[in-house]
């Protein structure tokens, strides 16, 4: 099987996958941070799976899921606070005469 790297080309006028990812990252920068946090927590907890001691597997997996979800929710909350700051506080500080 040959490795044809140009097997899929986006239709005319559409972005490639990497361009779309970079554009969406610029629009909401904390989404990749949340995803990275989830992956880091999951990787660490899987690595620590050997040293879990007498803890049941189901409890270990539940703790892993909760920690990964906490990273994702934390990133969403930081993104919401950042958006509120950008839209309301920063904008009103720049335009004090309008209202």
Description of the structure:
It is flat and about 65 Å long. The chain has 99 residues and is an all-alpha fold. It has helices at 17-27, 30-47, 57-94. 4% of the residues are buried. α2 (30-47) packs antiparallel against α3. The protein has three helices and no strands. One of its GO terms (biological process) is mitochondrial respirasome assembly. Keywords: Membrane, Transmembrane, Transmembrane helix.
Could you say which structural class the secondary elements and strand pairing correspond to?
Answer: mainly alpha
Q: Which segments are poorly predicted (pLDDT under 50) over 5 or more consecutive residues?
A: none
Number of helices: 3
What is the succession of H and E elements?
Answer: HHH
Give the N-terminus to C-terminus distance in angstroms.
65 Å
Estimate the strand proportion: under 5%
Organism: Callorhinus ursinus
Protein name: HIG1 domain family member 1B
GO cellular component, one term: mitochondrial membrane
Subcellular location: Mitochondrion membrane
């Amino acid at each position: 099987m040959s490795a044809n790297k140009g097997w899929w080309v986006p239709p005319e006028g559409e972005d490639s996958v990497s361009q779309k990812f970079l554009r969406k990252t610029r629009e909401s920068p904390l989404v990749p941070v949340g995803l990275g946090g989830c992956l880091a927590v999951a990787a660490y907890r899987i690595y620590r799976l050997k040293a879990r001691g007498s803890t049941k597997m189901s409890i270990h997996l539940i703790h892993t899921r909760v920690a990964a979800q906490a990273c994702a929710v934390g990133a969403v909350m930081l993104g919401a606070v950042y958006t509120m700051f950008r839209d309301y506080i920063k904008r009103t500080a720049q335009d004090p005469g309008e209202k």
